[in-house]
Amino acid sequence: MNDAIVKENYAPGDYIFFEGDIERHFYIVESGQVSIRTLNRQGQAVELNQINEGESFGEFALLDNKPRSASAMAVNDVTLVRVSEEGFQQLMEELPVWASCMLKSFAERIKKTTAALKDAEDQLREKS
What we know:
This protein is α+β, with helices and mostly antiparallel strands.
């Protein structure tokens, strides 16, 4: 492996990255589970998603070149594959099936987020 694709290990409770970090890589979960979380307006942690073995996260930092929109924390012992921008380009070129799966994963995440926003809006209306 070169610096473009590197394995990393995290213990339960370890943060992989923090909301607002500026980084140009993403992760693939080889084993374990990762919690994607943000802080609400009251400063409390809110879990947005759990990422499991075989799934990836943090790709948007590569695609939009903006700070991380959430934090990532190891739920249990986690082994990750960290993929740099160079590694991402290699994967896109060498593994078109993987690239297609990644795009489908993006679409699923956007659909889940949209559904969650609609549910939250409905709950707010019911309380009003």
